[in-house]
Amino acid sequence: YPQPLQLRVSALLYPLLGACFWASVAGYKPVIIVHGLFDSSEDFKNLKMFINQSHPGTNVTVIDLFDRSASLEPMWKQVEGFKAAIYPIMQNAADGVHFICYSQGGLVCRGILSTLSEHNVNSFISLSSPQAGQYGDTDYLKYLFPQFVKSNLYHLCYTGVGQRISICNYWNDPHHRDLYVNSSDYLALLNSERANPNATEWKKNFLKIKKLVLIGGPDDGVITPWQSSQFGFYDNNETVIEMQEQDLFLRDVFGLKTLAARGDLIICSVPGVQHVFWHSNETVFHTCMEKWLE
């Protein structure tokens, strides 16, 4: 016999109510997404959907700032802009928030975490972000600087004019290390590769996060070397030195070694993912992100 309407409605309604109740009891923390170079908030529909399917009721905000060509603005300017937009969300989240920061956005988020003493970020998920810098002949480079290749871009990037372009703020030429250290107004300071009077305070601020999740993979095709997404980088022979052998890790300049010792540094490598697909790949979400968004 067909079920009475009331029973059928109940069968549909109760699981839904249960999910809503669970979301309110579990109190999933708000998730803040920061986009990368040439992206906009529109590009993260799939990621928002994955989060809402796995953690119903989660408040997910993709910050709609510095979209498309505006993402070339200097990194510190972006940090201040994103910070102003994100801070009210933090203030309304008593139990804290999570960051998912994609590509260049992962470096923006580090700037926020380092300079905002009252942040309440639990998981900082760095999604294919050039955390140790960028040095590669990518399509982005050819589009932005058609007259340059990686070997001569330092002529532009390590000047006052160059440092007004976001990509130059983290361009890390392993063959011109001194120029990078002395000229980079952003990454060299974040990594304390140049003397930074705020280094101690920035490290303290950064270490307020509960988890650092570093996601990347060998088929990325944009982040160069791809290990930069996990703080590995080239030496002057363009041999990749992994994070654990990097000076910034060994000297614990901003807290990587401390996070590792705490058990709060998570490395997640996924082959077969091209750079533009990290945030729309469901396997990446379930493998590398889902469990850190409680």
From TrEMBL:
Question: Reaction(s) catalyzed by this protein?
Answer: S-hexadecanoyl-N-acetylcysteamine + H2O = N-acetylcysteamine + hexadecanoate + H(+)
Q: Which GO terms describe its cellular component?
A: lysosome
Q: Mind telling me which residue stretches traverse the membrane in this protein?
A: 12-38
Q: Could you tell me one molecular function GO term of this UniProt entry? A: palmitoyl hydrolase activity
| InterPro entries associated with the record | AB_hydrolase_fold (IPR029058)
Offer one Pfam family short name for this entry. Answer: Palm_thioest
Which EC class is the enzyme in? hydrolase
Asked whether the UniProt record includes Cell inner membrane among its keywords, one would answer no
Main localization of the protein described in the UniProt heading: other
Q: Which UniProt keywords apply?
A: Glycoprotein, Hydrolase, Lysosome, Membrane, Signal, Transmembrane, Transmembrane helix
**Signal peptide annotation:** none
What Enzyme Commission number does this protein have? 3.1.2.2
List localization entries.
Answer: Lysosome
Q: Which domain of life is it from?
A: Eukaryota
Gene3D superfamilies given in the database record: alpha/beta hydrolase
State the function annotated in the UniProt record: Catalyzes the cleavage of thioester bonds from S-palmitoyl-CoA or S-palmitoyl-N-acetylcysteamine (unbranched structures) but does not have activity against palmitoylcysteine or palmitoylated proteins, branched structures or bulky head groups. Conversely, hydrolyzes both long and short chain fatty acyl-CoA substrate.
Membership in a protein family = Belongs to the palmitoyl-protein thioesterase family.
**Protein name, entry field:** palmitoyl-CoA hydrolase
